[in-house]
Amino acid sequence: MRQGHANETCQTISELLSRVGDKWTIQIIRALSAGPMRFNALRREITDISQKMLASTLRNLERDGFVSRSVEPTKPPSVTYALTELGEDLQRPVFALAQWTGENAQRIHAARAAYDVTQAGGRDAA
Prior knowledge:
Number of domains: 1
Strand order of the largest sheet: 1-3-2
Number of strands: 3
Protein name: HxlR family transcriptional regulator
Keywords: DNA-binding, Transcription, Transcription regulation
Shape: extended
Strand content: 5-15%
CATH class: Mainly Alpha
Organism: Silicimonas algicola
Structural class: mainly alpha
GO molecular function, one term: DNA binding
Distance between the termini: 48 Å
Domain HTH hxlR-type: 10-109
Radius of gyration: 20 Å
């Protein structure tokens, strides 16, 4: 494999992992796993997201093919978001990561606490 090709592949993987691993992407994928939702229902489900961030993230997810956007010709127009087949495929690793996090949260917190004690002791000695 050429070095340039490997770098391009790494850049692509890094860019896409940044998108699918984003805090808001994961929460939107989780929320839409229950079925299609309107914008305000998503905003209520993901309580700490701003309207601007939700709109931006949904636009990016639609662009990347994870989410579809349907507009109903009502007054005012009704917009519904749903996972595409690609978005549904993304659910598996998202849910696996969420499960792993839940199973290991105590170990992570214990490691952080041990590190913080070690670092605090090292700073006092310096």
